[in-house]
């Protein structure tokens, strides 16, 4: 008589790491819209919490937020996403090892089963994925940035990223008052985080004063930057340069300019309809828009330019990248949407040299990290970025530090959902071996 084969059961997950609770609630973002918050707790009581952000200018390929539709809150309620967490995600995660981030994220992706995370919602997945990471770090008794750095195995000391901070808002963030979405500053000459924030605060204050004196100040845009009333886009560039000088700083040496064109908002099929190209409405072909932007690169201290052409204009993006040259960051957002395969395909076409990393575009931290690793393997730079609809959640600061990303884009230097991130960097800097030091200027293309 044959003896039955006996297999050892999988070792039980210790209480310190065993997921015992996954709880979702509806909270509110910086635009007063509903969003998803998730808490994950272990059997030993370690707890992590995270909130899903939401974008206004979105790429067609990114994970979509699950919204309820109907009359309530303009159709933007998230009760379906909350229900999916309670009925599908939580039962699949409870009892599992909170340290198994990749496996847990893969489980959620499989449960959703769609290419765009539309069944359970990208908002449900990203909030849960980030909460898992926070709970794992808490279970290990480590801050999230340190937990991520420990697991990276790089051996490179964690360091604060160079801030990229909006001063003027336009595009979808300011009612289309300007064609361009973000006019930002980068403290390229700053050696440390505190100096970068100090310089930005002075530039922001100077910009507000100059706008008010010129009668051009209309308010504050979605991400906290000033909402200006300019007649054409280049006036904003000129005043931003003037603001750097008015703050007692040197344009291009101490503080440079970064632009987010967000061209997919006003272009399709290689044609771009701009309301204020040169003070009047114009339709430009791909090459004409590229030449307009290249002219700005020649006349102003611009070191980084995001989404200069639309996501469907691959040939135009490649031509612009070549024309801009290696000392300018050509950042892709809408075209690559934090997706490793898209990053590889655009790199193969010569389009772009820097990837924007937004976890909610991908849906999970595992997919976001895969996109980051793909960009690095290709020699691209990367920037971790917030969204226009933000909250007090500071996860992205920890991601940038723990994953060793050299730049961080949060929004402006106003509004608490933005300042929470900049202030978190101040706290983290007090605990780092490298302190508040930023990556050296030589680490960037403009160095």
Question: So what's the overall shape?
Answer: globular
Instruction: Please state how the strands of the largest beta sheet are arranged side by side.
Output: 4-5-8-12-13-14-15-16
Provide mean pLDDT, rounded.
94
- Which structural class is indicated by helix and strand composition? alpha/beta
Task: Specify the biggest β-sheet.
Answer: 8 strands, mixed, barrel
Radius of gyration: 22 Å
Amino-to-carboxy terminus distance: 76 Å
Helix content: 25-40%
Percent strand equals 15-25%
- The number of E-state strands comes to 16
Low-confidence stretches: none
Characterization of this structure:
- It is a single chain.
- 36% of the residues lie in helices and 19% in strands.
- With 447 residues, the chain is α/β, with parallel strands linked by helices.
- The protein has an 8-stranded mixed barrel, surrounded by 7 helices. Strands 1-2-3 form a 3-stranded antiparallel beta sheet.
- α1 (79-93) packs across α3 (122-139) and α3 crosses α4 (144-152).
Keyphrases for this structure?
447 residues, 3-stranded antiparallel beta sheet, alpha/beta, 36% helix, 8-stranded mixed β-barrel
Task: Describe the structure concisely.
With 447 residues, the protein is an alpha/beta fold.
Secondary-structure map:
Blueprint: E1 19-28, E2 34-42, E3 47-51, H1 79-93, H2 101-112, H3 122-139, H4 144-152, E4 162-169, E5 182-186, H5 193-213, E6 217-220, E7 226-228, H6 233-246, E8 256-260, E9 267-268, E10 271-274, E11 282-285, H7 286-299, E12 302-306, H8 314-324, E13 329-332, H9 340-348, E14 354-357, H10 359-362, H11 365-377, E15 381-385, H12 395-402, E16 407-412, H13 416-429
Parallel strand pairs: 4-16, 8-12, 12-13, 13-14, 14-15, 15-16
Antiparallel strand pairs: 1-2, 2-3, 4-5, 5-8, 6-7, 9-10, 10-11
Helix pairs in contact: 1-2, 1-3, 2-3, 3-4, 4-12, 5-6, 7-8, 9-11, 12-13
